[in-house]
Design a protein that fits this description.
Chain lengths: 585, 585
């Protein structure tokens, strides 16, 4: 038997017991003929004591142990002289009697502490050591706990988890698929699912009524900071429901998770239309942890002064930054540089300081009268001591998106984006389509199976850009955590959607014929939603990146540097698959 | 609102209520001015009544509904005149007042009944209709219930579910990998995991202590009846445990599942060595639902008579088939044909009938004296009226495997393999290696990470074929449901294993360097096990095939005939991946 107890469970009430523990050497120190050793496992840390006076040989062995040696120790639980109130086992120690090295360790390439000295690359290469750090491990424990809570919640709501296949067909609409050559069907390929979207809709046609799956999804896209080629969705679908049914049920699930994981009670969530969110926050995922809502200033500033930039603008909007009228020239220059970065893309930044003494000082003093600036103060509701930051441009929504970046930057600077505060809401009434500059055509904002708002169906032919979708996103702290929609369940309407999206009937049939055919056999009205599990975990864990809640993430080149994957494969494998390399370089 | 109730929940106590139901038309019949319609959803069937006298127009609409129309009905719950005790809603019916067609249906290509008229191919092409059949849907409901039970059981035992990546590196040892070309790393490929074996071992090195995952696994093998290219494992690993710890814990899990799902109380399970299982049943997965254990007859029949086949044999073994001494010539010929089939591969079959009158009649009467046949009766324990079937051959284990096929065939013929009876056991002490005729070398019986029995380690160099593994399989009703082993956690021993398996150190390093490197940092003793979820579900559901407990299975060519996957992909996709087709035909 390797252990009678874990390193996290012995207490003062166990004093006197003979125990066996196994674990890793966290650290050791010598003090007055004694060696103290912290033994660590997943459950905690227990102090071991080796007394030179009692057993010099044993103590000598203990002194030879290096960090991260895996050892087994037998001894007696004893009350500590100097207790450590920071850990649950801090009242006791083990007076060691026997010691066995189960497995020695080389010196780890970085320290196994919450604040490690290992850089990202080293940590990923030795991920099995990185995962020994409590700071990382607890994220994966939280992830496990969340999935248990989610499954039991949905099970109680009569949802059935159904595994859908990972080897499916390729659908060029949407992101790029990962593909898998089929050896048994040479020249043909499976694709890995970007989501189980069509399969879950088929389960609704099959009468499953309430489906969910915590499902791996795959997208072969160029990776940005917070993207992984494989990620996990909490994927759900329901029949015979309307938008409010879905929203209510999954809001309740979110409430359950916030309560159980963080002890936070979410209020009934606001539903904000996409248009309102864009107008007030310049984003379809507004961060509501702080104010600084947009104030439109067209009436105050366009055509009222001699500033040609404003006079030619189609949108002028500002935010009130409270208490920052004392910003220095240097700070304002930093903000100007910030908005001019290519990622933001604004031409320049206008500021108005409303000083404590009631005067105003701005970058547009020469174009506007003090009275006009006072008018802006009234419109924006700025107070003495506040700073107003203004952007303008010839495309209202583009400018709003720039102003959103500035607002979030100010939130960061003022420490208003507290990771322990959670502000969630629903965004509704998305536009059904959005224009793609790249493809020069309308694309589905969500996906081609989204139900148009019935009131807007007459607009499909003439004004598709005005059609609202029966779609909803769950947003928390400025992050889109989930999203879904009512689905089309009618063959004709689905065909119409493909037509507006520029599909020929042949292409629609080739790609989605199986779904449109299924709709001909009594398809029920249905709707669904998917949460990004990685994002949901990272929010509840207070993490910046989803990477820290994934056991073995890939880097920005899609590589697993620990496994050294991807890698070249044998010619025999290529031959069997009847493919060959066609390298450009 | 689409419904106030499901089709499975209304009872006599609801009589008088106004309700709204939604579902599918299962069947309808007209009787004396009334139309009766069975409305079906996942939860049950409720009878609707349309009375021509009350509302002729509504009744006319109801008469127009075809099978599988998806409809919504409002009406009043009413006590039935002729109750149907077979269904929970059989005491009531709904007097319909309003009817709305939510979605019409074409005539389904097969009937949506437990016993459908659809063949396999048609059912798979229209799987979304096939899944409407209760007989199929209940298997997936059972699968869901099992995974909930498993997860909560393991969670209570401190196991953490960790998602390991699906895009990993290719390892040519073992079955054939599915591979995924990497666009960002041209010429390189990911592989889909055959199991998370090495990753779960790394999680043990990482100190996770108890890991599990219900994980999709992939093998690109030619498909046999009960194989799927993608399948699901309940994958588990534990640190600081010995074989008995693992066996006890997972036996308890199995006991929990049999109890909760089938109401069956499993006894403490027998542990049978591989050698004993081969000797008594000719199989490492013996079906213990019936007897007919092997009796070795070398002493009785080799060299004692003039039958050259037996005199030259290295193994002669028989089974006693109770009460079958009256088998006809035709029946015995069928059995001879059965054992001579290429799948079984025996040369011939010898029988001895021990007649009710005490005489014996055999196919070897001319080679042996009646006394010698009487001796066989004593050795086998056959009684008057029993039939003894005997096989012989020059390779003991090969002959035993043939005799195993015959034993199972007799079990089938005599109805002894009852799907509602469960006989489970553990098989232990597997040989660590097995000889591969194809590869002309020793292969790992399980995988190269399996711990040799410490007593046998001295045999590794000279007699590797005699080395026993610390491995164990969970067998139920002749099916291997799970298996696992203690793992090597020592770099040197792991290197030795690769050496015996004929790996060069370079190849071992290239393929498994990451694991052997990890073992250098205080790897804990660890062990694990994986159950085949598909098989486990199919046993508990009483199914012949795993296909019926998979939502969207593939056929024997690895095709999903509903999705028409795999399929050809665009030239653009191939170009981006920098591969091209290299078709042989």
């Amino acid at each position: 038997m390797y252990r009678t107890n874990t390193c996290g469970e012995l207490r003062i009430s166990d004093a006197g017991k003979e125990v066996t523990l196994s674990g890793w050497v966290q650290r050791s120190r010598k003090m007055g003929g004694m060696t103290f050793l912290d033994l660590r496992d997943r459950y905690g840390i227990t102090q071991l004591v080796f007394n030179e006076a009692d057993d010099a040989a044993l103590c000598g062995e203990a002194n030879k142990l290096g960090r991260e040696y895996c050892i087994q120790v037998k001894g007696t639980v004893s009350e500590r002289q100097s207790k450590n109130s920071k850990i649950p086992t801090g009242d006791i120690e083990i007076i060691a009697k026997e010691l066995k090295v189960l497995s020695p360790s080389l010196t780890p390439p970085f320290t196994i502490e919450d604040n490690t000295d290992g850089g990202d690359d080293l940590r990923m290469k030795y991920r099995y050591l990185d995962l020994r750090r409590e700071a990382v491990r607890k994220n994966l424990e939280l992830r496990h706990r969340m999935t248990i809570l989610i499954r039991n919640f949905l099970d109680a709501q009569q949802f059935i988890e159904v595994e859908t296949p990972v080897l499916i067909g390729s659908t060029p609409e949407g992101a790029r698929d990962f593909v898998v050559p089929s050896r048994m069907n040479p020249g043909q390929f499976y694709a890995l699912p970007q989501s189980p979207q069509t399969l879950k809709q088929l389960l609704m046609v099959a009468g499953f009524d309430r489906y969910f799956q915590i499902a791996k999804c795959f997208r072969d896209e160029d990776l940005r900071a917070d993207r992984q080629p494989e990620f996990t969705q909490i994927d759900c679908e329901m029949s015979f429901v309307d938008q409010d049914d879905v929203i209510n049920l999954f809001e309740e699930m979110a409430r359950h998770l916030f309560r159980e994981i963080r002890g936070v009670e979410l209020p009934r969530l606001e539903q904000m239309t996409w248009h309102e969110a864009m107008k007030r926050f310049g984003s379809d995922k507004p961060d509501l942890r702080f104010g600084m809502e947009f104030v439109e200033l067209m009436d105050d500033l366009k055509g009222t002064g001699t500033f040609s930039v404003f006079n030619e603008a189609d949108y002028i909007g500002g935010i009130v930054v409270p208490g920052c009228a004392d910003y220095s020239r240097k700070q304002l220059n930093e903000l100007t540089d910030f908005v001019k970065r290519p990622q933001v893309g604004a031409q320049g930044l206008v500021f108005i300081k409303y000083n404590a003494d009631g005067t105003a000082k701005s970058s547009i003093d020469k174009f506007y009268t003090p009275g006009q600036l006072q008018k802006v103060k009234e419109t924006t509701g700025a107070k003495d001591g506040d700073l107003v930051l203004i952007l303008s441009g010839d495309n209202a929504n583009k400018t709003r998106v720039q102003l959103c970046s500035l607002r979030l930057e100010m939130g960061n600077r003022l420490g208003l984006r507290d990771r322990n505060v959670f502000r969630c809401l629903w965004i509704v009434d998305f536009p059904l389509f959005e224009w793609s500059d790249e493809e020069q055509r309308l694309m589905a904002t969500h996906h081609p199976f989204t139900m148009p708002n019935p009131d807007d169906i007459p607009l499909l032919d003439e004004h598709p850009e005005q059609v609202r979708a029966k779609a909803y996103d769950f947003v928390c702290n400025g992050i889109e955590v989930g999203g879904g929609s009512l689905r089309i369940h009618d063959t004709q309407l689905q065909e119409k959607m493909f037509e507006v999206l520029g599909f020929t009937p042949e292409r629609a049939e080739a790609q989605f014929g199986f779904l449109m055919n299924a709709f001909k056999y009594g398809a029920p009205p249905h709707a669904g939603l998917a949460f990004g599990l990685d994002r949901f975990v990272s929010i509840l864990a207070g993490l910046d990146s989803i990477r820290d809640c994934i056991a073995f993430p890939k880097n920005n080149s899609g590589r697993d540097v620990m496994l050294e994957a991807p890698s070249s494969i044998d010619q025999k494998q290529l031959d069997e698959l009847e493919i060959k390399l066609d390298l450009k370089n």
